[in-house]
Amino acid sequence: MSKGPRDKRMSIDEVVGELRDGMTIGIGGWGPRRKPMALVRAILRSDLQDLTIVSWGGADVGLLARAGKIRKLVFAFVSLDSVPLEPSFQRARQEGTIPEVVELDEGMFQTGLRAAAERLPFLPMRAGLGSDVLVNQPWIKTVTSPYDEGHGHEELVAAPAIRLDVALVHMNRADKHGNATYLGPDPYFDDLSCMAADRAFVSCEQVVDTAGLTVDTPVQRVLLNRMMVSGVVETPNGAHFTTCTPDYERDEKFQRAYAAAAGGSDEEWAAFEQRFLSGDEDAYQAAVAAFAEEGK
Amino acid sequence: MSTDASTVTRADVCAAAIADAFRDDGEIFASPMGMLPMLGVRLAKLTSNPDLVISDGEALFLAGVPPLFATADVVEGWIPFRKVFDVIAYGKRHVMMGATQVDRHGNQNISAIGDWARPTRQLLGSRGAPGNTVNNRTSYWVPKHSARVFVEAVDIVSGVGPKRAKEAGPGAARFNDIHRIVTNLAVLDVKGADDTVRLLSVHPGVTVDEVCAATGFELDVPADVPTTREPTMEEQVVIREVLDPRSLRFKEVPDQ
Prior knowledge:
The complex is a heterodimer of chains A (296) and B (256).
Chain A: H1 12-17, E1 24-27, H2 37-45, E2 51-55, H3 59-66, E3 70-75, H4 87-95, E4 100-103, H5 106-117, E5 122-125, H6 133-136, E6 142-144, E7 155-160, E8 164-174, E9 180-181, H7 190-196, E10 197-207, E11 222-224, E12 231-234, H8 252-262, H9 266-277, H10 281-293
Parallel strand pairs in A: 1-2, 1-8, 2-3, 3-4, 8-10, 10-12
Antiparallel strand pairs in A: 5-7, 6-7, 8-9, 9-11
Chain B: H1 10-21, E1 29-32, H2 35-46, E2 54-55, E3 60-62, E4 75-78, H3 81-90, E5 93-97, E6 101-103, E7 108-109, E8 112-113, E9 121-122, H4 129-133, E10 137-142, E11 150-151, H5 162-168, H6 170-173, E12 178-183, E13 186-189, E14 198-202, H7 208-213, H8 233-243, H9 249-252
Parallel strand pairs in B: 1-5, 5-10, 6-11, 10-12
Antiparallel strand pairs in B: 2-3, 3-4, 6-7, 8-9, 12-13, 13-14
């Protein structure tokens, strides 16, 4: 009897059950776009603490910072796009509640993940030279080129590998084995994050059979291969309130409500938390659906 | 053809000045951050430099030149973030970024105000400014020229000016190219004495003294400072009728 590849389907809570205090967790997507928010929300509900979070940041960073989950943040920016400055992240930085911060150039992020994915200690690049990235992160070193291409032996940044214990990413479709497609405009860096990590967990809008991954879209959209993936969890609307094009766009009305509460008084934030973040993912989605009906 | 100064808005002068910053770039990826830069780049593509490559600001290269914030008609390529980083390293790109602070040596800050360890005001983070400024041509757009923006020394160096690039060595300086700083009052560059910010022109109706007073450091002011050119009638029509029929530009640069 031939056996197929193993079934990696899990629940949201089972994914979070694989995480430990102090882990380095890379979160996929970009700013307020295709973020694994259902998994982030599950971390908010958990007892996990002292996490190192690596993210091209949006509300994932804001929410985790507000909940006091982050011991160390590796970031290049944190933004909600239509709300340029993330209020929870701003507050955390200004109140000094994130104990350790690493601010990189956003291209250095990609290079660092690539170095980790290629099992290299670093990769050379120009980004960072002359900037305060190298002043505020004095442990990031430069390297002198052994080659002279007519400009001398150039001194370049040795962008350090960004190794992750776990990557969390959200895709449009996945099969139960961990192959997964993005259907929107941009793959972001989710494949690199998975390859930079010891284990990667993929949440998705829909689990389909393997043939279904390419039935209506080119094979080039299968960004993740199952060898990069440890677990798959179906979380419909799981990227909410970030984009998950073409399944849905960003929920701007909800994002405005989030930003207002996060930038408002402690009471306003407590009311937002109570309404949306006090229950499980089903409760969250029900509260979001009720919120969407308001004012219609 | 000369135009009646009273009919030319400051926003349109700024758009033409931004377009001029991209006029001689040839066939490169023009990356505007923000509304006026987007308007100026699209104006350049429709007038002085049709070879410019432009995007929708998300992941598509646009063959056509749609109005501000309109969706694409014809697409000519794919430019997801990972390929943006490729193009930055490749060098065929001119980005016009915003700047919360710019200092005397053309360093830019979009990261945070105050002490980096615990800022008094956290901004975006340095984004791609460190990489942009040592890889491809970089300009800045400042919609409100003031001594709060133009400071003696930025709190955090996100974008690298030429002096610091030279100090960091050839690896940083080879491709450092801070081209223009366009503001609501003037056009500047960083080719003053000792790699400092230099005044290139003042917009119609603005005096050199006003610009100096709105700048928190000693500007390099040449003996003869011309007036920024007014947009041609063709450019005004393109701006008004084609690129920004909803007059969004006046939200960023109000009409006097």
